[in-house]
Write a structure and sequence with these properties.
about 350 residues, eight-stranded mixed β-sheet, 13 helices, binds ligand PMT
Length: about 350
């Protein structure tokens, strides 16, 4: 416990309730060799800091070690999980957000915070995730085989809609989010099939990968491999429209203005959700505004089991970035995953998918 923590609850209360000793001092004369923090660091399988204040995050981020907790953080070699708790304005402050990004780059995993009403009367992100949910998240993230025996099909990357032999319509998807999901699902024991649009990153190891160009090709390839799949995750940024006609020769520059006739593509994830014996179907929503409203609408309209919504078109996260944040919705439930690198985020999302799939 930090000094601030002991002002809320006495160490004696914690000791009585947990039936374990409570450590508060960096230099503890009672520890036999006065190296208590190193012993604690060696003993732990993982370190969970809950609740973590903005002050603690700043200390961890810059390597300060002026009390037992910050010293322990520096001394551990095990995985570190942090469940932040603070006022929403403190959470949004650039200094706090920068510390979170630094810590994420240092390999820390964040659990929460949740959104809602706060002790100070504000409403917003900063509530500590409920203890039961923290324990559940730790259990899921640390059990290697949570997808053992399942077949998972994923889409990733952009599609290219050909206009003529040299031009196409596409988008900024790099495939990083979908590839991270494929790789992590495979590590969690799933048999993974990945249907990918054209990307510049290496294919994930041990994953059966099929490359396609257009939305129509992605649709056909997904449908060919759908039988027997338990879970489908649609992380691809599929074109919603494709040119009505593909010109066989390069379109020549002639007039001041020109028009393109586009028609809707088939919605892949919505079609999968309509299949008999449909898999547990997870879509993504990439939005530049009204994230929750549009994501909830897609969840219902496409008849999905779950949707993972992310902001796109911003400096951080979303398209072509190493990090991302997700707001995940399902019927009567939601969970926030704060900004973290895509492999880490993929693991958190897969833990949630596994939990809902097995529910
Ligand atoms: O690839 P990265 O650079 O790592 O970026 C990741 C990402 C931002 C692309 C990814 O996280 C993401 O949000 N993917 C979905 C992008 C998207 O097309 O969202 P949407 O809101 O337009 O579509 C909603 C859902 O319908 C998606 O699951 C999409 O795959 C699916 N869809 C859309 C159109 C279509 N014809 N068929 C589909 O299956």
């Amino acid at each position: 416990m930090t000094k601030a923590a002991t002002q809320f609850i006495s160490p004696l209360t914690f000791q009585a309730l947990s039936a374990h000793p409570v450590h508060t001092e960096l230099l503890d004369a009672d520890q036999e060799n006065a190296m208590g923090h190193i012993n604690l660091a060696r003993w732990a399988d993982l370190l969970l800091i809950a609740p973590a204040t903005a002050n603690s995050l700043a200390k961890f981020s810059y390597g300060l070690a002026d009390d037992l907790l910050s010293t322990l953080y520096l001394a551990v070699e095990c995985p570190v999980y942090i469940a932040p708790a603070m006022n929403q304005a403190m959470w949004y402050k650039p200094a706090t957000q920068e510390n979170i990004q630094r810590l994420t780059r240092h390999g820390v995993t964040f659990i929460g915070p949740d959104e809602g009403s706060q002790a100070c009367g504000d409403i917003g992100p900063g509530r500590m995730t409920e203890p039961e949910a923290i324990v559940q998240s730790l259990k899921l993230q640390n059990s290697p085989g949570i997808l053992q025996g399942t077949k998972v099909l994923l889409t990733a990357g952009p599609t290219r809609e050909q206009l003529d032999p040299v031009r196409f319509i596409s988008n900024r998807s790099s495939g990083k989010m979908g590839y991270a999901l494929a790789e992590q699902a495979q590590r969690l024991g799933a048999q993974v099939t990945l249907i990918s649009g054209p990307v510049a990153i290496p294919a994930p190891k041990h994953v059966q990968t099929f490359f396609v160009q257009s939305a129509a090709e992605m649709y056909d390839t997904v449908m060919q491999h759908m039988a027997g799949q338990d879970i489908m995750i649609a992380a691809a940024a599929v074109a919603d429209y494709t040119p009505e006609l593909v010109q066989t020769e390069k379109i020549k520059k002639q007039n001041e203005k020109t028009e393109l006739n586009l028609r809707k593509t088939k919605d892949i994830v919505a079609s999968v959700a309509k299949l008999d014996n449909r898999p547990f179907t997870v879509g993504f929503a990439a939005e530049t505004q009204n994230l929750e409203h549009y994501a909830q609408d897609k969840l219902r309209r496409k008849n999905l089991d779950m949707i993972a919504a992310n902001w796109v078109g911003q400096a951080e996260g979303g398209f072509d970035s190493d990090c991302n944040a997700l707001q995940v919705y399902w019927e009567n439930g939601q969970q926030t995953f704060t900004i973290t690198d895509k492999p880490q985020l993929a693991r958190q999302l897969l833990a949630l998918i596994a939990e809902r799939f097995h529910a």
